[in-house]
Amino acid sequence: MELITTHINADFDSLASMIAASKLYPGAIMAFPGSWGDSLRRFMASPFYCWKVAKPQEVDLNQVTHLILVDTKKASRLGPFSQLIASNPALKIDVYDHHPLQPDDLKGEIEEVRPVGATVTILTRLINERAIPLAANEATVMIMGICEDTGFFSFPTTTPEDLEAAAYLLRCGADLNLASHFLKEELTLEQFEFLNDLLRSSERYCIKGTEMVIAILYKEKYMSELGTVVQRFMDMLKIDIIFALVKIGNHSSLIARSRFKGVDVGAVAGTFGGGGHPSAASATIRGMSLLEAREKLLSLLSEELSTTEEEVATPTFSAMGEIITRNPTLPTSQNLTSLMREQLPAELFAVIETISQTADGVPINAFLVGGFVRDLLLRIENVDLDVVVEGDGIQFAKTLAQKVEGSHKGFPQFHTAVVMFPQGFKVDIASARTEFYEVPAALPVVQEGSLRADLYRRDFTFNALAVRLNKPHFGELIDYFGGRRDLDEGIIRVLHNLSFIEDPTRLLRAIRFQQRFQFRMEENTRKLMREAVEKGILNLLSGTRLMNELRLIFEEEHPAVAIQTMAEFDILKFIYPHITYNQTMGRILDNVEKVISWYNLLYREPKPKLWLIYLMGLFEELSTSDREDGAERLNLPPKERQTLKAYPGEITTLINKLTKKREVKPSQIYSVLHRCRLEVLLYTMARAEQEAVKKAISLYLRHLSQVRLNISGDDLLKLGCSPGPLFNKILKKILLAKLDGQVSTPEEELEMAKKLIKS
Ligand code: CTP
Q1: N or C: more exposed end of the chain, with fewer CB within 10 A?
Q2: What is the rounded CA–CA span in Å between residue 476 and residue 357?
Q3: Any atom of ligand 1 within 6 Å of the Cβ of 509
Q4: Is 556's C-beta closer than 6 angstroms to any atom of ligand 1?
Q5: Is the beta carbon of 484 within 6 A of some atom in ligand 1?
């Protein structure tokens, strides 16, 4: 019996090559030796798929006399079929493969092995030469193999023969649309998470002048097609060489990709016991931790790479900058000193000058960054100084605090610190740091001094501006990413395509800034937001983090607009799945905004919890149990959970009581309202249709809630009344009478108290 098989963890090229081989060996059966990837699984479950590929257990090994291997020539990658080689010395083997030759390769009687992009390219040529007819569906699967392994003809391993084979297959009726449908799959949520982890854990190294990225990741759950995601990451960030060291459970692996001829990742993976091509390879890591694997990798690479003129390793960020920076602008030389003098309180400007002098004294490069610079340019008051220093921020904070006789606190795990000035100003200080590998097998050297890298990690271009503090450049604006222009044009623009994946809170920040500054989101940013929402990225946020962002939105001037934008982006479902935005909700939220502005003008303390009022608006249509679940999702304190559970019932009772009679006395209004939370009262005012209810709450908040008695418990004691429940009852009765105008002077209050005690 003739058996066509391939390597374990089969991909499209494996299947395509098996189907192509079956045209050369018409009587042979096809079987996978083990698992196959998710994309292939989806394709095989589609109506288009009509081939019979057996599972290993369905093959009677005793019957196999002829083994046709495609896309591999390694016994170790044949799963159970490797037994055939050990047990049957007479076994005939033919090999069709495009992987580079290695000493432990199986030898075949027929060996068609060439370094082309895909194995199926080799088989297509043979089919063409022998004029074997191909059906359109066969040609389609075969072209899929080529497309996958050549990255749609973009990988450097693509050869003219791959293009010729593809052209031939197209002439046979191959459908490229179908190929891109099955191969250009959208990433799943898990894959997005992995992409995000890759971004966070990526470190750039520059070894002998060659830049590369090494990432170390620890994951708990198995995820298939890691290679696809690594490839996507590489494409997105225009990285030429990447090594991802991934540990999932107990299994550690290396996934490597290279577009640079000088680095053969197949050879590198080979030293770890794996294999592949010069441009794509993988290995299982055994007997060492990922950190050790990285050390090994680094020393290997430094041996393999020939020395260039750039002997010293320097971290550069040009590759990332290229795609990330949509408006690459050189640092401008605009000076903001006069604007700061004009715009800032003199005391704050003095603080900035002190920071500048301290930085020059150390010496260390220091910059004002973030929201402060943005607001300075927008001429909006902001006294929260954010400083980045190129070096040790904690040490700088200490020096600064000593100089100004203030206090400081460091947060070593984040390399940040805060300095409190005696005048009450608070300055946040962060260290701009990049790590890079200088000498192989030595510890990474912490390179401090990359403001650009620090700014590049931020959310939007207008938040990635900096002002130089060192003389003689004091006041100079640094604008690497076109933030100034975006600020002038009122555009919200992310710095890079993974911004929302890196930090999902940025979805809400974008909406917050949009309503605050009345800016518009740039198209690509909107698209990235939509994609991030579709992927459910916000589900990754804890309730507390989500609530923190919502709180900030609800404390802005126009939260109703922001909520409407959240609805447009379909974000409300992440607060709670059943929240649906409609016109009524929009109207109530608009009213909430008006009621809050009205209440603010009363200058009353305590201030209401605005977020709770807006949550009432969002939760109004939910059932009691959904409201309870929603409050739990947001990890709210018990008191607020109780409010959110009970408020609709409370409001109905309150409205009924206030509208039952034509005339409701002030004392009755007081009795109905004084036990309600301020937030419930304000929300009811916004939501109630009845004028009487609005008026009653307004009267209560403006006047009735402020009325106090002139007499106190002491006066009752003097009148011979002993403390107890009666005490409060008497005082309350007098207060109600006072609200209705029956008593007003201290004497009248005392008189009434006497009467009540007597009776
Ligand atoms: N930042 C970021 N991504 C986030 C949060 C913050 O990149 N998810 C960066 C931005 O550069 C931001 C700076 O950190 O300007 C400070 O953040 P924060 O104080 O939260 O915001 P501000 O931009 O100052 O905005 P606000 O006026 O609302 O305080």
Answers
A1: C
A2: 15
A3: yes
A4: no
A5: no
Residue 506 CA: nearest ligand 1 atom is 8
Residue 148's closest CA among 36, 74, 71, 228? 228
The closest residue, in CA terms, to atom 12 on ligand 1 is 370
The two most distant CA atoms of the chain are separated, in Å, by: 120
Q: Assess contact for 168 and 142: CB atoms under 8 A.
A: no
Report the sign of the C-alpha dihedral through residues 298, 299, 302, 303, in that order.
negative
Residues 179 and 52 both lie in one domain: yes
Structure tokens at 421: 């000035």
What does pTM read for this prediction?
0.60
Q: What's the token pair of residue 211?
A: 């830049």
Say if ligand 1 is within 6 A of residue 496 CB: no
Q: Which of 17-31, 394-408, 471-485, 512-526 has the lowest mean pLDDT?
A: 471-485
Domain termination residue (choose one: 318, 349, 377): 318
Range of the domain at 345: 337-547
Q: Atom 8 of ligand 1 has which residue's CA nearest to it?
A: 506
**Do 170 and 99 belong together in one domain?**
yes
In this structure, the residue with its CA closest to atom 5 of ligand 1 is 459
**With a 6 A CB cut-off, is 449 part of the ligand 1 pocket?**
no
Mutate to test the pocket of ligand 1, among 375, 377, 463, 545 (most ligand atoms within 8 A of CB): 463
**214: Cβ contacts below 8 Å, ≥ 6 apart:** 202, 203, 205, 242, 243, 244, 245, 294, 297, 298
Burial of 50 from C-beta contacts in 10 A (0-12 / 13-18 / 19+): exposed
Tell me, what CATH number does 612's domain have? 1.10.3090.10
Tokens of 425: 């100003």
Which amino acid residue places its CA nearest to atom 24 of ligand 1? Answer: 371
What is the Cα–Cα distance from 86 to 693, expressed in whole angstroms?
89
Residue type, 5: T
Distance 460 CA to ligand 1 centre (A): 9
Same-domain pairing of 225 and 313: yes
**Same domain? 622 vs 742:** no
- What's the pLDDT at 599? 94
659-668, pLDDT tens digit by residue? 987 788 999 9
Taking the CB of residue 17, how many other CB atoms lie within 10 A of it? Answer: 33
Tokens encoding 7: 């390597």
Ligand 1 pocket test: which of 324, 459, 515, 537 has the largest number of ligand atoms within 8 Å of its C-beta? 459
Give the atom of ligand 1 at the shortest distance from the alpha carbon of 464.
11
pLDDT in tens, 273-285: 888 888 889 999 9
Question: Does the CB atom of residue 458 touch ligand 1 within 6 A?
Answer: yes
User: Is residue 431 a contact partner of residue 393, using CB atoms and an 8 Å limit?
Assistant: yes
Number of domains in the chain: 5
Establish if 429 belongs to a structural domain: yes
pLDDT tens readout for residues 282-332: 999 987 777 778 878 888 887 877 644 333 333 333 333 222 222 223 334
